[in-house]
Amino acid sequence: MALLDVNHLDVRFALRRGDVQALRDVSFSLERGERLGIVGESGAGKSVAAFSLLNLIAKPGYIAGGSIHFDGRDLTAMSDRALRHIRGHRMSIIFQDPMMTLNPVLSIGEQMVECLKAHRRISTREARAISLRKLEQVQIPSPAARLDQYPHELSGGMRQRVIIAIALLLDPDIIIADEPTTALDVTIQAEIMALLLELCETHHVGLILITHDLGVVSQVSQRMLVMYAGRVIEQGPTREIINDPQHPYTQGLINALPQMATPGSRLNQIPGSMPSLDNLPSGCAFHPRCGFVERADGTTRRACIDLVPGYVTSGNGRVACHMVAEMLERERIPAEEIR
Amino acid sequence: MIAFLIKRLFHALLVMFVISIIAFAIQDNLGDPIQQMVGQSVPESEREALREQLGLNDPFVVQYLRFAGNALQLDFGYSYIFNEPTTEVIARHLPATLELVFATSLLIVLFSVPIGVYSAIRPRAWLSRLFMGVSIIGISIPVFLTAIMLIQLFAIGVSWSPFPADTGWGAWLNDLVSTEGGMPAYGRGRPVPVFGTWATNFASLEGLTYLVLPAISLASIMLPLFIRLIRAEMLEVLQSEYVKFARAKGIPLRRIYFIHALKNTMLPVITMGGVQIGTLVAYTILTETVFQWPGMGLMFLNAIQRSDVPLIITYLMIVGLIFVITNTLVDLIYGLVNPTVKLTGKPA
Fold this sequence. Notes:
The structure holds two protein chains of two kinds.
Chain A: E1 4-15, E2 18-30, E3 35-39, H1 46-53, E4 61-70, E5 73-74, H2 80-86, E6 91-94, H3 98-101, H4 108-119, H5 124-137, H6 143-146, H7 156-168, E7 174-178, H8 186-203, E8 206-211, H9 214-220, E9 223-228, E10 231-237, H10 238-243, H11 248-255, H12 302-306, E11 312-314, E12 317-319, H13 322-338
Parallel strand pairs in A: 3-8, 3-9, 6-7, 7-8
Antiparallel strand pairs in A: 1-2, 1-4, 4-5, 9-10, 10-12, 11-12
Helix pairs in contact in A: 4-5, 5-7, 7-8
Chain B: H1 2-25, H2 33-37, H3 44-53, H4 60-72, H5 86-121, H6 126-140, H7 143-156, H8 168-177, E1 192-195, E2 198-200, H9 205-238, H10 241-248, H11 253-291, H12 296-305, H13 309-337
Antiparallel strand pairs in B: 1-2
Helix pairs in contact in B: 1-4, 1-13, 5-6, 5-9, 5-11, 5-13, 6-9, 7-9, 7-11, 9-11, 10-11, 11-12, 11-13, 12-13
């Protein structure tokens, strides 16, 4: 069994006008030391997925179904007490905006020491020593002085380094990074990403990287998920998906990269925008924006409009698309006839 | 820090100067003090002579400069009604008011923080809803009405018998809705002298019972205000990213609430509190009148009724001074609690 095994995860938000489904049927797994990328537009459910892994979704959100097995135990069925010992200890998280993540009235040292003390019986002196070592590992300038400084005395890049140091404090098995570089300067983004990657490799820590930057995912992760409107619409080895995307949405995403456009011409884009979760279109949620609802011969693929697509296996990955399913079906029949 | 204090001292002097002008300007518009001082039978010529003798006919600026010069030597003139220096009158009344304000502040701090925090952590619990409902009532009932109701309930006592008294449960319920009374609600009792004009109600149990009802009614508006303020701030802080991050770090909830959230919640509350302590001193006028508490508020009301201008002016100066001092203290405390604030003499 994999270190992390998410099966058919359903997350809903209980609103006054009824439940809104933020995640539906999300399944994936992560091996020890593996790096997984989750991509998608804003609102696709990436962050909800990250938070639900630690069972940290804020009310009115709740896990409505499915399971999250971590190291053999189901996190969705765990007591708050037991969960607390997993959070920050076995699985830690890095937030998007380092300016908001640290408590402004507590010193860096306090915020690191409390984390160690929450999970280990340890003296303040020892905890400070470990904290200092971690600050050195994230290559922050003059680490010893930082312990007694407050967040406002540090730049955004330095704060994100501190947060990475906190995430690494207890040598977790998995780090979930929710767009860890989005709020940073472009020049610092690459530095922080390289640091995170290096630390995960040297400490053999699994990484779940949530981003909308396909470039980063292709460099960092071994496997990736593409999310659309709360569903995983394609997943598989990163290299395969980047080189040969199956789902029309993934194709659109890759096609929209600036380097895919002819210099001087307009950038490619997917027409339309993502539907809101409380008003999903029928059938495949992507069908109003999809160029493949009509077949090449001009007939309409009714299933796209009427039926929610199931998963089909394609290569080493899984795709939720009627068009791909149809193509695979067509390929299989002649192969059987030959036999 | 020293530079900060010097700067604040300069500010304080400026504020006191402005207050002194305003306070002094009142005297021309507050009736004729001569009328209050002498009897009906005194002829107009004698009145005019007295007016001349007291300098009440001089131009405003001359009168103000004379007043300011004396004030710098802590001489604010003679109270017409007490016939002694106003500073001595104030010194006699100040301790009673300060003790009442202190007791009230203590009540507010002791109750507003736990109740505010609880109702932010459990916003949907019935107890939170009860606190919120009662606090609205507290805010909307005027202080003097609260005071009178408290006196009726706990000083005089009420005996209601809406239930049949001849049955066991009826008698029990009647006892439940009736109150015994007996709490002191007039004056300070016999406060224990400490030194000079200062006698304290805090030194004996009997003294403390005299404080209970006045302090509760003085707190009746400010306490709900602070409960609601703390609740609102805390609710906002609990939504913040750093609280979410603390939870993701696996920090125990108790520490998240009382270290991570409460410290940030208290920053704006401290600022508000500083301003409100000054306001409390002003609110004592109503409470002290209802309970005949021999403090500055009651004294001030008497001074107004009898046009005792020097006493009124001195009172305004003292209250202004209390405002200035508490605000400076609060800024100092704020600087100690909030690491993003550095106390310097430089303009921000």
